Amino acid sequence: MKTKLLAALVLAMTFPAWSADPKPAGQPATQNGQPAPATEEQMIADFKADMFAKRADVMAKALTLTPEQASKFWPLFESYLKEQEPIVNAQIAATRHYAEHYQTLTDDEAVAYVTSLLERDRKIDDLRLKWLKKFQAVVPVKTAARTIHLDRRLSNLTQMQLSSQIPLVK
To answer: For residue 89, which of 78, 79, 97 has the smallest C-alpha distance?
Structure first.
């Protein structure tokens, strides 16, 4: 069950449109020429790196920035993504713990898992409010709003996919 839940975590958190990307060249291969199986840690690390890179790519396509705005915006956006990372890590850790204990989940563990999800939502909302102001300092107000609006949509899609793959507390 643990492996299924962790695999669901990694798979569900990637968008279907992003899955068409080719595998990076130079991956180690087994004797039969197939890629070596990735460890759970490597799958999660790859997922996170891909998620943040794809999010930036979607933003670049959805925002119209002048060269001057772009030179100020992108370093801020990178900082914004870095500030999201501990929140994502906490959600992954909570989901991993939930997966490991799913069959024997205590009342306290069930409440702790749901609480971690609610805390994640609150932290992300607080972070978006903070960064909306920062983005407004370097791009037009509507562009800053569009950035947060789009980031929220992408996050909601990811969360919906993830939650649809993780069984409810029993």
So the answer is: 97
Task: Specify whether the CB–CB gap between 143 and 79 falls below 8 A.
Answer: no
For the entire predicted model, the pTM comes to 0.73
DSSP codes, 17-76: GGGGSPPPTT--B-TTSSBPPPPHHHHHHHHHHHHHHHHHHHHHHH----HHHHHHHHHH
Contacts of 3-7 spanning 24+ positions with Cβ under 8 A:
3/40, 4/99, 5/95, 5/98, 5/99, 5/102, 5/166, 5/167, 6/40, 6/43, 6/44, 6/95, 6/96, 6/99, 7/43
Give the pLDDT confidence of 152-167 residue by residue, as tens digits: 999 998 889 888 889 9
- In Å, how far are 27, 79, 100, 153 from 55, measured between CA atoms? 24, 13, 29, 11
Q: Is the dihedral of CA 47, 48, 51, 54 positive or negative?
A: negative
